[in-house]
Amino acid sequence: xxxxxxxxxxxxxxxxxxxxxxxxxxxxxxxxxxxxxxxxxxxxxxxxxxxxxxxxxxxxxxxxxxxxxxxxxxxxxxxxxxxxxxxxx
Length: 89
Description:
Layout: H1 7-15, H2 61-66, H3 77-86
């Protein structure tokens, strides 16, 4: 049972897995067999091969992060590949 009546404590109690308690299975319990895919899927989307090398930026990171660098709005395959790699994507 919940020791605190705060909304956060009630939400935590109601949505926790709680296998070791005596609440039983209730309508609002988490259904672990009914989960969405953890990966996104884009059926029918064209796939492209990206370069497997990391490209060095010609612009210092401080300039990019400060917003001082004008953007042309284009991202080529080399840049996209590097961003995805560095972002663990």
